[in-house]
Amino acid sequence: MSKPKKVVLAYSGGLDTSIILKWLQEEKGCEVVTFTADLGQGEELEPARRKAEAAGVKEIYIDDLREEFVRDFVFPMFRANTVYEGLYLLGTSIARPLISKRQIEIAHEVGADAVCHGATGKGNDQVRFELAYYALDPEIKVIAPWREWDLNSRTKLLEYAETHGIEVALDKRGEAPFSVDANLLHTSSEGKVLEDPNDEAPEFIYQRTVSPQDAPDTPTIIEIGFERGDAVSIDGEAMSPATLLTKLNELGGANGIGRLDLLENRFVGMKSRGVYETPGGTILLMAHRGIEQITMDKGAMHLKDELMPKYAELIYNGFWYSPEREMLQAAIDASQELVTGTVRLKLYKGNCDVIGRASPYSLYSQEHVTFEEDDVYDQADAGGFIKINALRLRLLKARDRKAGKNS
């Protein structure tokens, strides 16, 4: 493979990617284009521009992708009620395909022949980025510094930074307490004080949520409106996807909702401990479940629940741009055609409960389920239904008795 000439770097402006920028210039001899994605991480992004300019970068991209992130990635995922290993709402996983997509687009715009990420060789993100790169551009060159260089400790990184005049934030000179990834859907904290899975996460880890014990003593009641499976309003006020999720984050965070301490199975084989905060996403999941309860047919709903773990695993492992994920998405989206209406929720001290739901396409029939007298359901019909379903069980038992089996 020929040596790359121009590379688009996924650049945060932090210690690792600032060192990668210099390393690409000096060790690879590449012209570097930086790309910083605003996914709602809540940080000022202009310092990244200034650092890139100071490093001599001529082409600097800082793109606001918040609406696209929620509309085209988060919402499609939530139509499936997606959770990985029963708990994780995939806040990091779902951001990687969008970052990769825009990185490849920029590479084409500027005539770059390579892309670069700052993911380590131990984690999932290297897989997610690179599977997306190759799916979108099979000929692109990929540079993964953590799999190439010998800067394999924080001490070596700091020494490299000092040698090359790279600005290092004061709190990075000691041991950082933990590693954080954030976007509009969640925050993820890993490493350092969290590496022993038997130690409770300290309170300072949490950035978006108050402790449930410190949350208000009065419940917050909200109503979320849905159209075709996507949330479109809060308390009757129409909102864009990113604005709506931002508001749900505020409401959930203030009520201590969305904390998760998870020991998960990484794609590369090892287990890792992460502490996640997904306040808005937790509310959105409960609300979406609520609107599906009243609008979706039992068979379709149960089938979708069976498909979900596979769909979640595909996203977690980095296969967003795979044909199998797209096939599942088509089925999921088809199921949402009439998932429209409103869901009322109570937020209280870490809990999020559905307390009401309504839809013009409701499948709920009070006439059929009432305990009072009705004219629409003959209870005697249930006897035949039960006997038909019991037939195979009765035949099995008769055979077993004949064979001398008494269990």
Automatic annotation (TrEMBL):
E.C. numbers: 6.3.4.5
Predominant localisation class: cytoplasm
Functional pathway: Amino-acid biosynthesis; L-arginine biosynthesis; L-arginine from L-ornithine and carbamoyl phosphate: step 2/3
Domain of life assignment: Bacteria
Enzyme class: ligase
Binding site for ATP: 10-18, 37, 118
SUPFAM superfamilies reported in the protein's UniProt record: Adenine nucleotide alpha hydrolases-like, Argininosuccinate synthetase, C-terminal domain
Keywords linked to the UniProt accession: Amino-acid biosynthesis, Arginine biosynthesis, ATP-binding, Cytoplasm, Ligase, Nucleotide-binding
Compartment list: Cytoplasm
Database matches in PROSITE patterns: ARGININOSUCCIN_SYN_1 (PS00564), ARGININOSUCCIN_SYN_2 (PS00565)
Annotated residues for binding of L-aspartate: 120, 124-125
Name the UniProt record assigns to this protein: Argininosuccinate synthase
Originating organism: Algimonas ampicilliniresistens
Lineage, highest ranks first: Bacteria, Pseudomonadati, Pseudomonadota, Alphaproteobacteria, Maricaulales
